[in-house]
Structures are given as C-alpha cells and as structure tokens.
Amino acid sequence: MSWLKALKETTRSGLKVERSRLEPLFALRATAGLALVVCSSFALMGPEAAVSSAFGALQAAIATFQRSWRPRPVLALASGTTLAITTFLGYLAGAHLVLFIALLALWTFLAGLTWALGPTVGVIASSNVAMVLVTVTLPTTVAEAAGHAAVIFLGGLVQAALIVLFPIRRWGAQRDALADALAAEADYARRLRHDPTAAFDPAPLMAAREAAVVTARQARTRPSELHGARGLAERIRPVLASLADPAVGAADEGPERDRVRELLAAAGAILDAAARAIRHGEPVALPPGAVAALRTPDTGAILTGPAYRASRRLAALLDDVVETATPDTAAAVPKTVLARLALVVRRRSPEGRAASRHLKQAAEAQAPEGTVGGAPAGARAAAHAPAAAQPPAAVLSDTRPIPLLRPSVPALGPRAARTLRDELKVSGSPYLRHAIRVTAVVVIGYVTGHNLPFGHGYWAPLASVMVMRPDFSQTYGRAVARFGGTLVGVSLASVVVFAAEPGQRLSLALAIVCAGLMYLLLRTGYVVVQVLIAAYIVFLLGAIGADVGQTVYERVLLTLLGGLLAMISYAVYPAWETPRLRTKLADWLVADGRYAAAVIEQYAAPSGQGEVRQALLDSRAARIAWREALQRAAIEPVRHRGLSHAAADGAGEALAQIARIGMLMEAHVPERGTTPVPAAAQLADALRESADQGAKAVRERRVPDWRPVRECLENWDGEGVPDRVVLRGARLLLDALDELSDALEPAPPR
C-alpha cells in the first residue's frame, strides 16, 4: 500500500464515529465521583487543588472503562496511586529542567514498554505521563505538591469506593463474554445447516476464557451460572462440526442430513436461550420448537456411527448448558426439560436406556408437584445418584472445573518485571521500539514546546504520548483524531467562555459536564472523546484564571506539533508488521500441527484429554496473532516482502482447515478403555516433525514438504480404527497441508 493510501485509511479510521451501546449508569457514577472530589477540593483547598483532583478522578474513572477482567476498584486505585506518586516526584524534579527531562524520559520509556503487559496497563501508564505534564505545573511548594498528590490519590480512592458501594450490573462483563461465546456457537450451529464446513471465529471463546480467570476472592462470590458454561461451550463446538461435516458425520443428502439440520437448528435455539439467560441473570426460557425437535424419538434409527455418537454427546452437553445457565435461586425451567432431552440420547442398548431413565428421574426429583418448575439436574444430579444409577461417562460428565485463578496484585510485580526484562532482550521487539520511539518524541516535544514563545509547552508532548501506540495504524489514526477533536473542542469551549464569562464555580461545573458526556460517549470513537477532553481542559484552566484566548492558539498549534512528531517518528523508526508475517504464519503452523498431533495421539492411547486442551489454546492464540498481524499489515505503506496478499490468504485458509480437521477428530476421541490404535502414535510424531520442519521452511521462504506424513499414511492399512475417523481425518490433514504448500509456491515470472 502506498503512503498516500495508507494515510487516507488511517485518517478515515481515526475520524470514525461508531454507534455503541451507551452505559448511562456507569457514566453517572463516574461523573458523581469526579464532581464529589472536585467540589470538595475546591471548597477546602482552592481552585488549583480542584484542578489536580479533577485530573486524578478523571483518569481513575477512565481506567475503569478499559477492557480488563480485574475488579474495577483495583484499576481506579492503581491509576490514582501511580498518578499521585509520579506527580509528586515530577514536582520535586521540576525546578531543574535537565533533571525533570531525565525523569520524564524514564517515565515515558517505562510507559511505552508496559504495553507488553497489555493494553490496559499501557493506557494507564501513558495517561499518567500525559497527566503529570499538566499537574506538575500547578503547585508552588513541596507542601502544596504533597497536597496535590494527596487529592489526586483521593480521586482514585473515591472512584473505587463508589464502585464498591454502588455496584452496577455486577459481573456484567463476565456475563457478556460468556453469553457472546454461547451466542457465537448458536450462530455457528445455524450456519452449519447450510454450510457443513462453515468457519468459526474462536475469539469469543478466547474472551470467555479470559473472563473466567478470577482472583481467589472473586472465585468465592462468582454466580453459579458463570462456573461451567464456558467449558461446555468449548466441548459443544467440535461436536457441532463433526455432526454436520459429511467427512465424519451425516451424509450429504437424505434423511440423515435432514435430521442433522433439525438438531442443529434446535441446538442454536437452546444456546441462544442460554446466552440470554446468562447475560441477564434470568432462568432459561427454552423455545418450544427446539424442545419439540429434540423430542423426536427416531434419532437412533436415522443416524448411525459417528453422526449418532455426535448427536448423543450434543444432547448431553445441551442438557448441561441448560442446567449451568440457570441461577441456583431461579426456578423457572420446565420440569420436563431433562425428560425431553433424555429422549434424544436414548439408545437401543441397555446402557442408553438406563441413562435415559436416570435423566427422567432426575428431572422429576428436581421439580416436585405444585411448583412452577425446578432447576434441571444434569451432571450435578448424576453425581449424587446411587452408583447403580450412574449414566455412562459419554452421556454425562462433570462440568464444574477448578477455577482459573488470577494472581493477586502483589504477585503481579515480579511477573511484570520479568516480562519487561524479557522484552529488553528481544531483538526487534515492537514494544521496545515503541518505548524508544515515544521517549524520543516526548523529550523532543517537551524541549521544543519549552523553548517556543507560546507557554504551556507541555501540550506538544502530551499530545504525542496520548496518540502513540505500538502499531502504525492506531498512531496515525489517533493523531488525526486528536488534532481534529482538539480543534473542535477548544473552539466550542472558547465560544462558551467568551459568551458566558463563567466564574470559577461555573467553569468547574462545565468541566464536570464535559467529563460526564465523555464517559457516556467513551466507546463511540476517539475523535468524540478528544472534543470533550479538549473542552474539559479549557474549562479547568479557565477556573484557575488562564487566558482562554491564548489557550486556543497554543493548544491547537502545540497539539498539531505533537501529532506531527508522533507521525514522523513512526516513519523514521518504524516497527512494521509486514516483514514479520512469515514468522506469525510459521508459529500458527507449529501450533496447529501440535494440536492435531495431540488429538491423534489420543487414538493411540485413550486416556483423557492429555495435552489436547493446551494445544488447542496455543493454536487459537497463534491464529488470533496471525489475524491481527494481517490486519495491521494490510494498511502499512510497505511491500509484502516475500508473502503476497494471495499467498497470505491461501495459507491462512489452509491452516484454518487444519485446525478444523483436528477439531472434527477431537469430537470422536475414544474413551478410556477403548482399543488403542498403535499406528496413530507414529502419525502424531510424523505430524509434529513435519510441522516443525515446515515452519522452518516458511521462515526461510521455502515451500514446506510433508514427506513424513505422506509416508506414514501410505504404510498405514487402517485396520482396527473405530469408524476409521482418525484415518479419514489424517488424509484430510494431508490435503490441507498440500494446500498450504500450494499457497506458498512462488508465483511464476511474468
């Protein structure tokens, strides 16, 4: 992409305003905290302290709006505490220009490097650098500096206290993440009805897993419906795919395909109902049509082999989803839910009939006569039933995993230090390059602004540190949005000031109104936020007697200077994603190969999941990393450097196909005690070896060769393989690997 086209794309993205779901209660709580701190500081300590507290409370509340699964009070306290400390240290060094610039450079470098710890930490650290550039200019003595630091900390403390005292939609983010995952699987089930090989985006499942990682304190208070549904969603996805795919499931056409379409539609409806229940914390309201579809008793007569096994597992998993998604305190699920779902898992064997009878008995026991309904029993009732009544493990399973625990805040220090130390050692690390780049820009901007005859020279580095991100598109887009938003916001606020001539109290009130609107519209776009932030700062400076007419002129020019410095720095010292695409592709190939090999190895030694789960998570992470890198590279003004757009698209489709085939085989992994398939172990070893060698070839711009896998399949007769699922899957894997090689073949010369 040319520079001109790249600039057009980034400008368009920076000025984009999105329609987003507003959260007025969250905005009202944050605004109330800001108003409480500002008014108290103004009454007790004067306008300068009120302005300091305004910055602290504003930043603490903004931190709570960031996408993070940590408790919101922790984010508010972390933001307020770090800003208070940096403000006080900055004032102590502010009397000596060289010392302050050195301290500013150290802060900025660490803030740039902290993006390696995640975007939330990076945003808080960068915002602290920006805020401290303003707040260090307000106090005049060490005692006043300590007082300003105290009111900044108070701002964060008040915001945290309001979150604790007035919780709004507690566990709402976790509920939304889990509901989104179930809704994504419902949509996937419906798409499989028309496209048996439809693709599935694992991002919602990954977000749900991140949301499921809780602190030890959270684990004790987490609602019951947020415990096991994510694990069930993970297990449902391969079952849905294997039921629909003609390679290992039902036939392309005929009664089997019609029955599968009915089951998929019913599964989508039930998953949607569970998603709505979890999102709103309500009982599950099952759609009658879906229940009626699952009541059809002739499933065992229509489906056979792998397709029939998949239908049984799907019914059992849906049963557990309904159970898990129902709050313990609710009693609105029809008592016959389990009895109806039991009809789907009925088999012609004695074991299947025993499982069906057990499910009916569990439903009747959970919903006594005379009540509206009761929570279905599912796996929980099975765990308390007599040993003789226990259904087979394939039908019911434990859905209450051990909680994924997040480390405490004190334990994060050593981990963060190790991560930052590792980034310093990585050659070409994008986060290290970002830290160096933003440090140079902030120092140059501060020195330049200090020597210009404008005053308030900190606005140039403030603009730079707020817009700069580790990637090109966000930096350029935010630079354009910040300048445009600043121009509009400063102009509008100046018109209000000149027309109304507000005093100190009214100026502070207008600033609070701007902050409230900013909280409300925070997710609609960066340019909208900048309009309100610019007006917010104008009103705050007006409250301490700053010349607003000069403020307009200075702020616009210095913001333009800061944005230009940020954009020039990326052109001079870039961290392009395009040259790293082959490395990302190779990482995905290795992860996919290890996942498929771990699944195949289960056929050689049926003993549980083993390494399959971790291999699946690694494969998903590599896929997301590839997709994000591809999106960033698509708008970079550089050549493809060895991986054209067509090659990247073809290779991505082939690797997605490898992951999908592994998922299909995972749905039919044999249970403990099943006859092993020794040849599967050799195939798994060959696949790992080929994936490692293939990744090396991709990095070195060679075409991968899959000879070990091909030879292993040629020497495998397939005898003794249950339903020949693994052998069919292995052949499909080889086809996908060949497609990857074809995609990476050099284009013939013209």
From TrEMBL:
It comes from the Bacteria. It is found in: Membrane. Keywords: Membrane, Transmembrane, Transmembrane helix. It is a multi-pass membrane protein. Pfam families: FUSC_2 (PF13515). The keyword Aminoacyl-tRNA synthetase does not apply. Residues 350-377 are annotated as: Disordered. Residues 443-568 form the Integral membrane bound transporter domain. The chain crosses the membrane at residues 26-45, 99-125, 145-166, 435-459, 479-499, 506-522, 528-549, 556-576. The keyword Membrane applies. This is FUSC family protein. It comes from Streptomyces polyasparticus. The lineage of its organism: Bacteria, Bacillati, Actinomycetota, Actinomycetes, Kitasatosporales.
